[in-house]
Design brief:
The complex is a heterodimer of chains A (353) and B (130). Chain A is of the alpha+beta class. Helices cover 20% and strands 34% of the residues of chain A. Chain A has eight helices and 22 strands. Chain A starts with a strand and ends with a strand. The chains are: A alpha+beta (353), B alpha+beta (130).
Chain lengths: 353, 130
């Protein structure tokens, strides 16, 4: 039996096609995922992302604990409300999960993937030393995204008791945390709130002209924005250096001995053998995960591939030999089709890069 | 609920076939387009190409997946819907009309009778959905 979010009845009422996702019953689309995609690029869309796992880390040892566990350094979160996108690594430098860490008034809040919930909670709890509490929070999360998202949120009073946070910051107002973050490449807010308050906010946003958007649109939007999906573009067999996430690793100060650091240092000095990069298909067709990619430097594979509604052609993330550049052939139904090797993102704030 | 017009014949692989003056028009069903989601690209056979019943004659790519299109009858392709090249969304908007894929001149017109009628096809879809 899959878990249902507090918005389940709202999804059904909005005509959602519901699917099982990471143990949850989630909306795939509300009719047309392409329309939902364009609504987010051109106006505003709202996603129910309550399936994501919210974990609060508190206690006097919280900061030291996260400085040991995360590849990014929470010490850099100089003020309450600041956020950091980073990874949780294992001893070999493989990615256990990617997450956002927020500095809260009391400790830190981590938002981790739904599919990795049990693994990550176990990972955190078994590594606790000293006075640290690890508490999962059962709450709803609405991601309102798009160029009109903030104006729509303001029109329904989301920011009545809070100032608009700066990008990649959060504010707490009463029992809500409002973060200026997202997974679409657009401006917008992610609102964490008690389950019982979620349906009214959802209905208010829809009434303000915000388009409901499902998991399928979330996937096309995040790939256009060049954002990795855990379990598809990265997993425990891949380090952040090989997953285009080197920027999420904070090497300084050198004495910060985070889990996986030594493995990453070895990989960095030996040279990273593969890279995760973008592909843009130059002919008709659609790249899909698992397809083989042939380059002059050797072979690789598509990790995420789909048709980009914004660009009108197929885009992908692919794991390729580090030396591969410029051109590749993607084997689509055994036919080699030409693609350009490009640096993600493909789309930023509504426009082709 | 998907539409399955009575005057058409259907393949279990979700193509429809409509006979008009000895030529068989082929497309995918309302049920199929709904399951695929937004269609973004259709690969059609070449006019003049001979295709065998139940064998691959093209591919439809949606935002979700690639799916083979099978010829419902054996014969020669006499026309393809070139509109789909620029407007693949016609497959979603009008699967039984402007969203047609190709037309076949059948080797044996009686082969059409081996396809499913609307009620039987609708039952197949209902069973799949369960």
């Amino acid at each position: 039996m899959n878990r249902k979010t507090a918005l389940h009845a709202e999804h059904v009422a909005a005509g959602a096609k519901m699917v099982a996702f990471a143990g949850w019953d989630m909306p795939l689309n509300y009719g047309s995922q392409v329309e939902e995609h364009h609504a987010v690029r051109n106006g505003a869309g709202v996603f129910d992302v309550s399936h994501m796992t919210v974990v609060d880390i508190a206690g006097p040892g919280a900061r030291g604990f996260l400085r040991r566990l995360l590849a990014g350094d929470v010490e850099r979160l100089a003020e309450v409300g600041r956020a950091l996108y980073t990874t949780l690594l294992n001893e070999t430098g493989g990615i256990v999960d990617d997450l956002i860490a927020y500095r809260m008034r009391q400790g830190y809040r981590l938002v981790v993937n739904a599919a990795t919930r049990d693994k990550v909670l176990d990972w955190l709890r078994t590594r606790v030393t000293g006075e640290v509490t690890v508490a999962e929070r059962d709450m709803a999360i609405l991601a309102v995204q798009g160029p009109e998202a903030i104006a729509c949120c303001e029109s329904v009073g989301v920011l009545r008791a809070a100032v608009l946070p700066a990008r990649f910051n959060a504010v707490t107002a009463g029992n809500r945390t409002i973060a200026r973050t997202g997974y679409t490449g657009e401006d917008g807010l992610e609102i964490m709130l008690p389950n019982e308050e979620a349906p009214a906010l959802w209905r208010g946003l829809l009434g303000a002209g915000v388009h409901p958007a499902g998991l399928a649109a979330r996937d096309t939007l995040r790939l256009e924005a060049g954002l990795n999906l855990y379990g598809q573009d990265m997993d425990e067999s891949v380090s952040p250096l090989a997953a285009n996430l080197g920027w999420t690793v904070h090497w300084n100060p050198q004495e910060r001995d985070f889990i996986g650091r030594r493995a990453l240092e070895r990989e960095r000095s030996a040279g990273v053998a593969t890279k995760l990069t973008g592909l843009a298909l130059t002919v008709r067709g659609v790249m899909r995960p698992g397809q083989r990619v042939v380059t002059e430097a050797g072979e690789g594979a598509v990790t995420s591939g789909l048709f980009s509604p914004t660009l009108g052609y197929s885009i992908a993330l692919a794991r390729l030999p580090a030396e591969a550049s410029q051109a590749a052939d993607v084997l689509i139904r055994d036919k080699p089709l030409p693609a350009r090797i490009v640096r993600p993102p493909f789309v930023r704030r509504g426009h082709a890069e | 609920m998907s539409e399955t017009p009575n005057e058409l014949r259907y393949a279990e692989t979700h193509e429809w076939a409509r006979e008009e003056d000895g030529i068989v028009a082929v497309g995918i069903t309302d049920h199929a387009q709904d399951a695929l989601g937004d269609v973004v690209y259709v690969e059609l056979p070449e006019p003049g190409q001979w295709v065998a019943a139940r064998e691959e004659a093209g591919v439809v790519e949606s935002v979700k997946a690639a799916s083979d299109i099978y010829a419902p009858v054996t014969g020669t392709v006499v026309a393809v819907n070139e509109q789909l090249e620029d407007a693949p969304e016609l497959v979603n908007q009008d699967p039984y009309g402007d969203g047609w894929f190709f037309r076949i001149e059948p080797d044996d017109a009686a082969e059409l009778g081996e396809l499913l009628d609307a009620d039987t096809y609708a039952e197949t879809c209902a069973a799949e959905d369960e």
